[in-house]
Amino acid sequence: MKKLVGLFFKLSLVATIIAGCSSSNTTAPGNTSTPNTSNTTENKTESPPKEKKVVYALPAEPETLDPTLNVYSRSSIVMQNLFRGLYKINKDGQPVPSLASDTQIDETGTKYTFKINPNAKWSDGKPVTAHDFEYSWKRVLNPDVASEAAFDLFYLKNGQNYNEGKATADEVGVKAVDDQTLEVQLENPTTYFLNLLCATSYYPVRKDVVDGNDGWTKTPETYLVTGPFMLTEIHPKQKYVLKKNPNYLEADKVQLDTLEIVFIEAAEAELAAYTNGEIDVSDNMNNESMQKYKDSPEYFAADRIGTYYFDYNTSVKPFDDARVRKAFAIAINREQIVRNVLQSTEKLAYGFVPYGMPDLVDPSKEYRDVVGDLFKEDVAEAKRLLAEAGYPDGKGLPEIEFMTMSGQTDRDIAQALHSMWKENLGVEVTINILESKIYWDEMRMGNFMIARDGWTGDYLDPMTNLTLFETVNAADGPRWSNKEYDALLQENREIQDQAKRSANYAKAEKILMDEMPVFPLYFYQDTYLAKPHVKGVMKNYIGHTYFEYAYIE
Questions:
Q1: If both were cysteines, with which of 203, 497, 502, 548 could 67 make a disulfide (CB 3.0 to 4.6 Å apart)?
Q2: CB of 526 within 8 A of CB of 77?
Q3: pLDDT tens digits for 505-541?
Q4: The pLDDT of residue 472
Q5: Reported confidence tier of residue 45, pLDDT bands at 50, 70, 90
Q6: What SS3 class is residue 127?
Q7: Which residues pair with 55 in a beta bridge?
Q8: What residues form DSSP beta bridges with 434?
Q9: CA–CA distance from 438 to each of 71, 175, 442, 457, 508 (Å)?
Q10: For position 53, what pLDDT does the model report?
């Protein structure tokens, strides 16, 4: 997320002009006198105001509701509507103060002093303090907690050292000086640090609720939040009900009374629910919904800085060989999969850093356009690489297992890849379809050969995408390590010369695509539907759906 100077953002928004509402009181026809309120014989019954409610669908429950543990996009969508941190992303896509009332940055660009807004409160009415942030950030980094989001906070002084057991919690660069003052020391100047503060891993949780209570996220009574909505009902596998949080710092600007999040796994079922008026906002679109609504005013599209890709397990044969990895990656037809199978408008990926990421030297240009494609599809070359690796026409390859998730899009893509690899390389692939929770557990344990993956970054710098494959982070994915790649990204954390940083990113990305521990398919674009009466729904460049600015017309 980003600093107060040199901010460059791109964001596609749904219209956010707030419509005014009016009401009037009337008296019975012919009654021109002032009513006697103490002795009236005729009572007028007034209808209660209509609830301002939006129903939104997700394909499944969030993987976690603990922001200090979160690395999931679906979980982020829910928590971005429940929590606020020091900063938030506004309607224009810029990081602006939320629970912070003042920010001071020293001349080195490494020391930040935040003042917590004295009116900031938890949903139970208790004040939010600097101690909440110190506790939460150290919780993310605590090796005993084992949060997968820990790398998000390695920007803090000794953050990584503490996470790796090389420093104590007291040595981490975050300290509550008093209830209202938070001092933060970074390892290096980080031009996008304020942007980072908008990510869920930097949100506060409260020590007295979290410590010793593993089930604190399971009931509305203990699930305390700081954002525009609060969780009031949990119906596992069915829906969550969120109500406007009266203790939110900007509650007077929140126009919805209720946000109901229902869980509909199949895109076909979600389309039916949307068409029948059972839900108001839908973003799990398939071919049918795209064709039905793409030319209607209910259809919206917004770029986000994410990539749909696949991990190879580089620790197992045959994918310990870069030639085999590249052969599988370039033997497919992305155009056919995205345009014909998915019938989507998303952009094909021949690199890993997505569109929507501005160039560091000239932010009016796209990083992706400046760097260009880093590989091309070529079946003949794929066959040559496979033969060179000792597997001519796929002969001698062990049984290849491709692990994917149960959503229709994932299954359609898996079938297309299966056909292309069989036709172009002579390789038979077994598809293993798993539910979300089991899927990610299998990934972490390394029980896969090729696996579907996806990532949306948190801030407008290529680091947010490329850091996934540093040695310290790749252990749960491709199990790949490259010292030169690591060194290039580390240097970019320590310098502010944007031309040099841009060159380093391009070089690192080329290494990634040459060795191909992962192969990208397409860059994300958020397409979604919103009923005409629902206005102000916002999709930011991270891909989160915000309802803080939504209203009913």
A1: 203
A2: no
A3: 999 999 999 999 999 999 998 889 999 999 999 988 8
A4: 86
A5: low
A6: strand
A7: 260
A8: 405
A9: 16, 38, 6, 24, 32
A10: 98
Spatial distance between the Cα atoms of 82 and 17, rounded to a whole number of angstroms: 23
- Please give the Cα distance from 243 to 479 (Å, whole number): 42
Dihedral pair phi/psi, residue 163, rounded to 5°: -60, -30
User: What does the pLDDT average to over 545-551?
Assistant: 96
Distance separating alpha carbons of residues 403 and 341, to the nearest angstrom: 19
The encoded tokens of residue 225 equal 């939040």
Predicted pLDDT of residue 31? 33
CA distance linking residue 208 with residue 131, whole number of Å: 11
Distance CA 9, CA 14 (A): 16
Q: Locate tokens 């605590």: which residue?
A: 142
CB 377 within 8 A of CB 334: yes
Length of the chain counted residue by residue: 553
**Among candidates 274, 269, 289, 292, which has minimal Cα distance to 59?**
269
Among candidate residues 434, 425, 469, 466, the one with its CA nearest the CA of residue 452: 434
**Angle at which helices 408-425 and 267-275 cross, to 10°:** 140
Q: What is the pLDDT of residue 46?
A: 64
Instruction: Measure the CA–CA gap between 203 and 23, rounded to whole angstroms.
Output: 38
Q: Where are the alpha helices (DSSP H) in 145-301?
A: 159-163, 193-196, 207-210, 267-275, 287-293
8 A C-beta contact, residue 449 and residue 313: yes
Residue appearing with tokens 């299966």: 418
Cis peptide leading into 48, omega within 30 of 0?
A: no
Place of tokens 């939504």: 550
Place of tokens 């980080």: 190
Q: Which residue has the tokens 């056919």?
A: 336
Q: Report the pLDDT value the prediction gives residue 137, as an integer from 0 to 100.
A: 98
pTM of this structure: 0.73
Query: What is the residue type of 237?
Result: K
Decide: helix, strand or coil at residue 290.
helix
DSSP 8-state class, residue 118: T
Residue type, 45: T
- State mean pLDDT over 235-243: 97
The enclosing H or E element of 415 equals helix 408-425
| CB-neighbour burial class of residue 491 (10 A; exposed 0-12, middle 13-18, buried 19+) | middle
Indicate the residue type of 234: I
Rounded-to-integer distance, Cα 391 and Cα 384, Å: 9
Whole-number average pLDDT of the chain: 90
Rounded to whole angstroms, the maximal C-alpha distance in the chain is 99
Place of tokens 């007291």: 170
* Beta-bridge partners for 518: 311
Q: List, in sequence order, every residue forming a beta bridge with 527; answer none if it has no partner.
A: 301
Task: Specify whether the CB–CB gap between 243 and 266 falls below 8 A.
Answer: no
Q: How far is CA 133 from CA 4, 155, 199, 206, 399, in A?
A: 21, 15, 13, 9, 49
pLDDT for 32 beyond 60 = no
The per-residue pLDDT for range 299-342, each reduced to its tens digit, is 998 878 999 999 999 999 999 999 999 999 999 999 999 999 98
CB 121 within 8 A of CB 128: yes
